[in-house]
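Q: My labmate handed me this sequence with no annotations at all. I'd like to see what the chain might look like in three dimensions before we decide whether it's worth expressing. Could you predict it?
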Amino acid sequence: MRSNAAAAKHHRLIYLLSVAQRRLQRWMAAQPSSEVTPAQAGLLFILGKQDGSLMGEAGTALDLGPAGISGLVDRTAAAGLVERRADREDGRACRVWLTPTGRTALAQAKASAAEINAALTDGFTGAEIDIVARWLSSIQDKFPRDPTRDPTTDAEQ
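A: Here is what I predict for the chain of 157 residues:
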C-alpha cells in the first residue's frame, strides 16, 4: 500500500489529470471544424444512443445536476441542435430530441472524437489504454458526484 501512495505522490496525478483535462477541452473548443462545444457534443452523443431522453437521464449520463443540464439543453436548443418536448406521460418532465441539424452535428462530432481518440492513444498499446481507461473510470466510483454518498454502500443496495 505504501508503494502506491509513494508512486501517486511522485507522479503528481492530480496536477497531471487537471492539466490534461483543461488542455484537451481548450484544444477541442478551438478547432475551426468544431461547430459544437465539447459539452454539447456530449449531449449529442447521449441523444445519439437514446434520442428523446429525459433531461434528468441526460444530466446523469453527463454528470450534470439539474441546473447544469438545463443550461446545456438551453444553449444546444438555441444552436438548433436539439429540441425540448414535454413527456407524454408526465407533463412535468421534459425529453430532449435531436433536430436534423443536430444529427449532422452528431456525425461530425463522432468523426472528430475518433480523430482525437486516435491522437490520445497514439504511442500506447491497447493493454496500456485499457489500464488508463480502467483507472479513469475508477475515479467516478472513488469520488462520487455527491460527496456525501458513501460508495461502499452502493454495493449493498
